[in-house]
């Protein structure tokens, strides 16, 4: 909960356990860490003192070097430098000679020597930790965050900061190999040269984390180059694999299919939807938004900045729905964009192609095509415990209050209630999250007791995005939405923490692509969904807070 930004909820959960006697190093360390995070966010020394107290008590009791090094650091932060050195010395003796592969023990020794102002020893162990943790960006970033905190209180050599400074993070988009094109744009003959240029850009920008799809041509070349450099590759497919192969890979030949399969074995793979294509080009458009948003989310987590790397013909200005030019136009920053122009590698000067938006025709009737929609499911916790006589208050007071509070806000395209459940659908992420924020605010500030309802009423909110079928229900004659992504959103809601807003990675990426840096979006992790519906990567969304 704390790492997802729900620090108050984490304290409310852990503090009673701790006070009841659960004082093992893991529980104590997590609780103290929450207070430390609160201090970093607010700079309120009360939180630093609470963190120190818990770390130090546990270290005295259990002699865990994990709580020990944190007790030493928090002593330094709260002004007890001599005590920090004393505990750091004990930690050094306790660890002794660490195993060659034990990243955390090595990094702890480095921090302990730094606190003792033994700079040469600290640098030596930090260099070793960076070597052992190479490619383990989560570990390296944790150490970098600790160094960012420490440098406010002691001297941290610039050489150490550089060892752990985050790598470049890139979203990538680019042309496929030419297919049935009258005017050459990316013939297979220039693919090796494009691949070399991509690799050089990755080296120049120190890009080691990438987000892309995997079409023949540019995408696969980017993926191969990043993997050769030892980077982390995150691949998104817009729909079922076999359909993607048919639409975006197979026409280029068996070699590209084989390269696709080889990359797929080495990457982190996410499907926008596992359903079939059905000629819904909006899936490509949403794919671009998710790739861009995912790179921004990751850069925020790692104290880095995202880059958009593209392979785009500057002579071909026509824009296809979901095509390279379309994706580039979604990039929310004027800077941080690097393009490789394949026109410069053609044997003959390229012919300029002008045009507006090209939308491919489909044999599927427009009325049955899917649309990208942003989905909210909310459920009122405690409804099932209401007394029979309280039900009218719920219907006429609570639901009316929600209606009144949202009267001046744009209504969702679809809005339904079932008992205590609320279901809403919008056409964009920002409207959906603002609707969720208003729902949450109502429950945060309302005195339900005055209205004859239980005091502890809370709301669970889950947000998701994906392709859905939208149409009129022939029975009710009202517009409704259908499809697997409606079901997925419904299965997310029961596992959301009451009082918080949970969102899928697809929704969160789309939101940050639409409104970068406007919200606090914190990674929760991969959670198991209700009713055995599989798993989902989830974020928590809140209003933006001031950070350290």
Describe it for me?
This protein has 548 residues and is α/β, with parallel strands linked by helices. Strand 12 and strand 13 form a beta hairpin. Strands 9, 10, 11, 12, 13, 14, 15 and 16 form an 8-stranded mixed β-sheet that branches. A 6-stranded parallel β-sheet has the order 4-3-2-1-5-7, with helices on both faces. It has a two-stranded parallel ribbon with strand order 6-8. The chain is flat and about 75 Å long. The chain folds into 3 domains: 7-164, Tetratricopeptide repeat domain (Serine Threonine Protein Phosphatase 5, Tetratricopeptide repeat, Alpha Horseshoe), CATH 1.25.40.10; 168-358, 3-Layer(aba) Sandwich (Rossmann fold); 370-543, 2-Layer Sandwich (Alpha-Beta Plaits). It has helices at residues 7-19, 25-42, 45-62, 65-77, 81-95, 103-115, 119-132, 137-150, 158-164, 191-204, 218-228, 241-248, 254-264, 282-301, 324-330, 391-405, 429-445, 484-492, 505-514; strands at 168-174, 207-212, 232-237, 268-271, 306-311, 319-320, 337-340, 357-358, 371-381, 414-418, 421-426, 458-472, 479-482, 501-504, 519-528, 535-543.
CATH topology grouping of the largest domain: Rossmann fold
Beta-strand proportion: 15-25%
Largest sheet: 8 strands, mixed
Number of helices: 19
Integer count of domains: 3
Low-confidence spans: pLDDT under 50, at least 5 residues?
A: 1-5, 356-367
CATH class of the largest domain: Alpha Beta
Q: Could you say which overall geometry the principal axes of the C-alpha atoms support?
A: flat
Secondary-structure-derived class: alpha/beta
């Amino acid at each position: 909960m704390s790492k997802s930004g729900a620090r108050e909820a984490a304290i409310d959960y852990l503090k009673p356990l701790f006070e009841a006697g659960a004082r093992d190093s893991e529980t104590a360390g997590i609780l103290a860490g929450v207070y430390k995070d609160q201090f970093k966010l607010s700079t309120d020394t009360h939180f630093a003192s609470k963190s120190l107290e818990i770390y130090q008590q546990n270290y005295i009791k259990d002699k865990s070097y994990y709580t020990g090094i944190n007790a030493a650091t928090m002593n330094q932060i709260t002004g007890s430098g001599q005590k920090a050195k004393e505990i750091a010395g004990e930690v050094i003796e306790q660890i002794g000679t660490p195993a060659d592969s034990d990243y955390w023990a090595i990094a702890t020794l480095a921090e302990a020597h730094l606190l003792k102002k033994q700079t040469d020893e600290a640098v030596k162990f930090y260099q070793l930790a960076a070597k052992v943790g190479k490619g383990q960006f989560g570990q390296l970033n944790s150490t970098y965050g600790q160094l960012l905190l420490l440098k406010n209180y002691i001297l941290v050599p610039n050489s150490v900061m550089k060892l752990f400074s985050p790598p470049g993070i890139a979203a990538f988009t680019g042309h496929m190999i030419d297919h049935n094109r009258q005017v050459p744009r990316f013939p297979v003959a220039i693919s090796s040269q494009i691949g070399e240029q991509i690799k050089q850009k990755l080296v120049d920008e120190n890009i080691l984390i990438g987000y892309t799809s995997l079409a023949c041509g540019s995408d696969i070349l980017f993926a191969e180059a990043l993997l050769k450099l030892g980077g982390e590759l995150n691949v998104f497919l817009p729909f079922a694999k076999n359909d993607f192969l048919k639409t975006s890979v197979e026409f280029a030949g068996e070699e590209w299919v084989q390269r696709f399969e080889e990359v797929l074995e080495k990457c982190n793979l996410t499907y926008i939807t596992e359903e079939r294509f059905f000629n819904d080009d909006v899936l490509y458009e949403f794919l671009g938004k998710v790739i861009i948003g995912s790179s921004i989310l990751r850069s925020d987590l790692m104290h880095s900045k995202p880059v958009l790397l593209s392979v785009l013909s500057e002579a071909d200005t026509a824009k296809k729905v979901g095509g390279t030019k379309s994706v580039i136009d979604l990039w929310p920053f004027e800077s941080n964009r690097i393009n490789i122009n394949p026109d410069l590698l053609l044997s003959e000067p390229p012919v300029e192609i002008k045009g507006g938006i090209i939308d491919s025709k489909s044999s599927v009737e427009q009325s049955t095509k899917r649309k990208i929609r942003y989905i909210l499911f909310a459920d009122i916790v405690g409804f099932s415990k209401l007394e029979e006589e309280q039900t009218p208050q719920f219907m006429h007071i609570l639901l009316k209050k929600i209606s009144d509070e949202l009267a001046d806000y744009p209504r969702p395209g679809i809005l339904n209630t079932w008992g205590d459940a609320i279901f809403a659908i919008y056409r964009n992420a920002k409207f959906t999250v603002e609707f969720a924020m208003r729902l949450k605010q109502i429950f945060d500030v309302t005195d339900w007791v005055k209205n004859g309802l239980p005091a502890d009423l809370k709301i669970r909110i889950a947000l998701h995005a994906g392709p859905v079928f939208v149409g009129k229900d022939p029975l009710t004659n009202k517009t409704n939405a259908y499809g697997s992504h409606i079901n997925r959103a419904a299965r997310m809601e029961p596992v959301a923490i009451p009082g918080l807003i949970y969102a899928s990675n697809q929704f969160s990426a789309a939101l940050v692509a639409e409104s970068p840096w406007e919200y606090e979006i914190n990674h929760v992790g991969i959670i198991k969904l209700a009713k055995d519906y599989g798993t989902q990567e989830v974020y928590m969304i809140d209003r933006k807070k001031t950070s350290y």
